[in-house]
Amino acid sequence: MTPAPCHCSIKPDGPAEPEGVDRRAFVQKFAAACAAGLPVVLGVVGVPGASGQTADGQKYDPGMHYYGMGVDPAKCIGCGRCVNACKTENDVPRTEGTFNTWVERYVIRQDGEVEVDSPDGGMEGFPAATEETTIRKSFFVPKLCNHCANPPCVQVCPVGATFITRDGVVLVDEDYCIGCRYCIQACPYGARWFKAEKKVAAKCTFCYHRITKGLVPACVEACPTQARIFGEVEGRATPLARFIRFNDIQVLKPSLNTRPKVYYANLDGEVR
Questions:
Q1: Which of 83, 139, 144, 266 is the most exposed place for a label (fewest CB within 10 A)?
Q2: 168 alpha carbon, distance to own chain's centre
Q3: Using CA atoms, how far apart are residues 263 and 106, in angstroms rounded to an integer?
């Protein structure tokens, strides 16, 4: 059988090769990916949970779904349960800078000054704000991979290891990832990190191993105030569709045209 044509490309003006990347391994993996027609293969192979069954015993069909998440900052209390649940469910190291999801606190002073903090990603909650009399308002904003419909991380990956599933989830195939970190640099939301022990890029997966079985992501399940809503973006009368319909919805950095699928309700203009 003639292999599928290679759709991979390395842009001549792309980032310099990061320190620690084995050039020979890079070339070998890239050549193997091209020979295998990687973008075609990845639509079926390497998707965790794609062959699973839903809770009612039906075989999961990714073509029947298109997922997104809604976030209501007004309901977030900064407890950090979502962060802890994600780390436990997805075996994310409890070290600095390794977060699939995190929570930021925005403090807006009377003089208009904006302070943003996220100690340990909000994993253990937040200390009391200082000089409370000078605070005009404060609120919490959960953040995660936006699972963009037009993701720059997919565009820059030289071997197609980062890809979009048919149900709209952006994933990383660890078997193909060469650890070049181009996707980490390309993500405008800071939603990726480097898994040192495996030398691959990592990120939120919407708990793909759960949603293909009819469950919600761990962060959604753990939220005590229902600040996160997961489900179908369109086509059905789902909680997420109603959330989008009945709220003033914003996405992060809309000018970049990444078409995020994490939707925020009544988001303050200071949030970036």
A1: 266
A2: 11
A3: 18
